[in-house]
TrEMBL record:
Residues that span the membrane, as ranges: 211-234
Positions in coiled-coil regions: none
Source organism (scientific name): Choiromyces venosus 120613-1
Protein's name in the database: Ubiquitin-like-conjugating enzyme ATG10
Record key words, sorted: Autophagy, Membrane, Protein transport, Transferase, Transmembrane, Transmembrane helix, Transport, Ubl conjugation pathway
One GO biological process term: protein transport
Gene Ontology cellular component annotations, sorted alphabetically: cytosol
Region Disordered, residue ranges: 66-95
């Protein structure tokens, strides 16, 4: 059997990263309702993974991020407000109607850090997935893709915050990205916890499992989560 063990954990070679992307793509393609998933290529070689999804945003002023549950009318259907309740409501922030935003995630390997980096752009409901389309502002990114409890913490990371904008490594147009400065430490902590539970991470931690953990560590910051059907990858670690 081929040896899929990572040679320099928590760092990845381009070959290991490409292998992980190929295997994870197959899992995600089989997930119902997850979104459009595909591989990106450079010079005929796999260089990343692309996921396009629609997310529910604009729940209310300063909303709590993506995918907050409830139908369009929430739980208010059939309730009759008293005069006092109506007056109280007037002092609250005006709720905005829910709208479907579009988010495009690109997983690439940093040649500098030898770690995956998550690039992404968020597009307003009226826009389409396109490099020529103006993406959402950073303020909108924080409001739509992050939770209220994590927002201030993310903004306080480093000088510019955990989320910044730069040119996409292959497309050459501006994309947001989650800075990888804490990735190695976070992945190392996952490995330490696994080993304390009796798991030999060096033996069992291949590129696909690495990326599955990494999505949970980094992707969740901006609303990118694996579908429940992929959790089995982690149980094998």
């Amino acid at each position: 059997m081929p040896d899929h063990r990572l040679q320099n954990f928590p760092f990845l070679s381009q070959e290991e990263f490409a292998e992980g992307c190929v295997r994870l793509e197959k899992k995600l393609k089989g997930a119902v309702g997850f979104g459009d998933v595909g591989l990106s290529h450079e010079g005929g070689v796999v260089c990343g993974l692309v996921v396009r999804r629609e997310v529910l945003g604009g729940i209310c002023a300063g909303g709590d991020g993506v995918g907050v549950g409830g139908d369009e009318d929430g739980d208010s259907e059939g309730k009759v407000q008293s005069e006092e309740e109506a007056e109280d409501d007037e002092s609250l922030p005006k709720a905005r109607s829910k709208s479907t935003w579009k988010v495009e995630y690109h997983l690439h390997l940093s040649r500098t850090y030898q770690l995956p980096i998550l690039y992404f752009n968020l597009y307003p409901p009226s826009q389409s997935f396109s490099s020529s389309t103006a993406p959402a502002t950073l303020t909108q990114v924080y409001e739509i893709l992050t939770t209220a409890t994590s927002r201030d913490t993310l903004r306080s990371v480093g000088v510019q915050g955990a989320i910044s904008q730069t040119d996409h490594p292959t497309l050459g147009v501006p994309y947001y990205f989650v800075h990888p400065c804490g990735t190695a430490a976070a992945m190392g902590e996952w490995r330490r916890l696994g080993e304390s539970g009796g798991v030999d991470a060096h033996e069992d931690f291949d590129a696909e499992k690495y990326l599955a953990v990494w999505v949970g560590v980094v992707g969740g910051v901006v609303g990118f989560f694996l579908p429940s059907g992929c959790y089995g990858i982690l149980r094998e670690v």
